[in-house]
Structures are given as structure tokens and as C-alpha cells.
Amino acid sequence: MAEKEIWTIGKILKWTEQYFAKAGIDGARLDAEVLLSHVLNKERIFLYVHFDQPLEEQELASFKDCIKQRVKHTPVAYITGHKEFMGLDFKVTRATLIPRPDTEILVEAALRRLPAGEACKGIIADIGTGSGAICLSLLKYLPNLQAVTVDISEEAIAVAKENAVKLEVDSRVEFCQGDLLEPVQDRKFMAIVSNPPYIPEGDIAGLDSDVKDHEPMSALVAGADGLDFYRRLLTEASELLEEKGFLAVEVGIHQAQQLKAMAENMTQWENTEIIKDLAGIERVVVLWKASAEG
Ligand code: SAM
Ligand code: GLN
Question: Given the DSSP bridges, would you call strands 269-276 and 282-289 parallel, antiparallel or unpaired?
């Protein structure tokens, strides 16, 4: 990139798109636009109506810094510090997984099974909350709901707390640092939701550089077959559910049927539901607590 040239928005977007594409970045144009709108602190649409506007020196310097990070495969969300999820803006840092669009299937599944709107007055738990994406979206869309969240990472909890304040749901959520269900042993919930780590150790090497070299491994890896957290959740969660309560979890590819088989071998669950994502992959498993009458 020549220093003395005048770089307009249109010209630098084109240059960056080509540079990213050569560096093997998928979605090169979109990434260039998201990063430039971040630097300019404007919506993406602004870029399109200001193609001829030249960048100021400081803007150019900040954008160059973003480009350098992105060609090292730093995910865009870690560069901007934000990710949209369920139409809401979440702060993310390297201590938190970047919320995935697939996880919206889990939120929607929970929304459809909890009482609607203001009638939803109970308390839920979100296990492995990360940025808080799942639970804070549910709180935002269900104004009388309360939640307890757990994460093993103190840094992730600090980010989730900031998100709760920003989304104005902080008065309805409690944060616990600890191991899975251990901090909530004495509680009862109308539902437990979780997107735990589920990637088998052996699959990590094959992940995209964006994920494996930048996102926290403690948010992703779950033993030899990826099922370690589900084994514990399926064994321990039903006791913490109220009558007619459910456990809803996101799962990785080919894991839904394994969870279904596990649950069918246990007396505490009945009626397993499996929900597919937009790509047709079985993505969410909902297990209902078996009724006390048996
Ligand atoms: N819920 C967020 C989302 O969907 O974007 C984050 C999900 S991420 C796949 C899994 C989260 O579980 C991470 O934030 C990680 O720190 C947390 N975690 C890992 N091991 C845990 C454990 N033993 N107990 C509680 N949380 C754990
Ligand atoms: N869906 C994430 C990925 O493919 C994994 C999230 C998880 O382990 N829960 O990178």
C-alpha cells in the first residue's frame, strides 16, 4: 500500500479485498467492510454512499493495523471487540468464544419451549456462558425471566457481566465462577441451557486457523470424543430441574444421536427432541425431565 497515495473508501476497500483474498481469508470483501466501518465508527451502509471520501491519516493507520491482524487470521470480532447475536450487540474478547449463528438455534429452541413474553417468570441456568450470548438474549426477549450463569473462566464472566449491563438485564442475572453445575447444586431451574465445549481433541488440528490459533481452547475441546461435558450434564442436570423442566444443549456434528442414545439409557429423561440448523445438521438436543409419577 503506497504511503503518499490518496486512499478513498472505495479504493481502499477494493485493495483490501484483494489483499485478504490472496492471504486466504474467506469473505474478504465483507471483512474489509466490517473492519473499515469499525475504524470509522459508522454503519456499513455509510461506506457505500461515501466511496469517494478520502481517509484521514489516523484512520488509515488504524485500518492498516486491522489489516495486519486479519491477515494473521485474527477473527474480525476480536479485532472490533464486538459480535452481533440474536440481533443484539455483544462485547467479545480473547477470553470468550465468538458467538456463532448456529447457537441462535439453541436460543430459539429455548424461547419456543419457555412460557412466552411476560408470562415467563421462572429462573434458568446457562452453563458455560462465555460472553453471555445465550442467557442474556433470553433475558432480553423474556422481560420477567431470571438467570444464573456459570463459567470456569473468570475473564469470560467479566465480559458477560459487561454485556449484561450494556443490554440492561444485569438486575436479573447472577454470575458464578466454577465447574459446570457445581456452583448451582442447591438451586432448581425451569430450564438449563448450555453450549459446552464439544470438539474432540483429535479434531482440533483440522479447524480453521481463525478458530484454533485464536479462540480459547478451554471453550472448545472436550476429551477424546467431544462428549465429556454432555456425560456430566446428562447425569447431573435433571436433579436441578423443576417438574416439566428441560435441558437444551448445542451439539457438534454427529453428536445428537449419541446424546439421544445416552438419554434413553437413563431413567431421569424422557422425550428427546433434536433440532437441525440451517445447514440441515442436527444442532440442538432438548431433553425433558422424566415426570415424578414415572
Ligand atoms: N455460551 C457461549 C456461546 O455459546 O457463545 C460460550 C460457549 S463456549 C463453546 C463454552 C464455554 O464453557 C466457555 O466460555 C468456557 O470457558 C466454558 N467452560 C469450559 N469448561 C467449563 C467447565 N468445566 N465449567 C464451566 N464452564 C466451562
Ligand atoms: N461451533 C464451534 C466451532 O465449530 C464449537 C463450539 C463448541 O465447542 N461448543 O468452532
Answer: antiparallel
Question: Ligand 2 centre and the CA of 57: distance in Å?
Answer: 39
pLDDT tens digits for 164-200? 999 999 999 999 999 999 999 999 999 999 999 999 9
In a shared domain, residues 103 and 187: yes
Q: 73-132 pLDDT, tens per residue?
A: 999 999 999 999 999 999 999 999 999 999 999 999 999 999 998 889 999 999 999 999
Place of cell 432480553: 140
Report d(CA 134, CA 39) in Å as an integer: 28
Among candidates 194, 189, 177, which has minimal Cα distance to 238? 189
Ligand 1, from 138, 152, 203: best to mutate by most atoms within 8 Å of Cβ? 152
Mutate to test the pocket of ligand 1, among 218, 220, 236, 284 (most ligand atoms within 8 A of CB): 218
- Domain identity same for 173 and 267: yes
Judged by its nearest atom, the ligand closest to the C-alpha of residue 199 is 2
Alpha carbon distance 178, 270 (integer Å): 28
**What is the whole-number distance in angstroms between the Cα of residue 125 and the centre of ligand 1?**
13
Ligand 2 atom at minimal distance to the Cα of residue 215: 10
Cα–ligand 1 centroid distance for 199 (angstroms): 12
Q: Whose CA is nearest to atom 7 of ligand 2?
A: 197
* One domain for residues 67 and 90: no
220 lines ligand 2 (CB under 6 A): yes
Same-domain status, 120 and 231: yes
CATH (domain of 119):
3.40.50.150
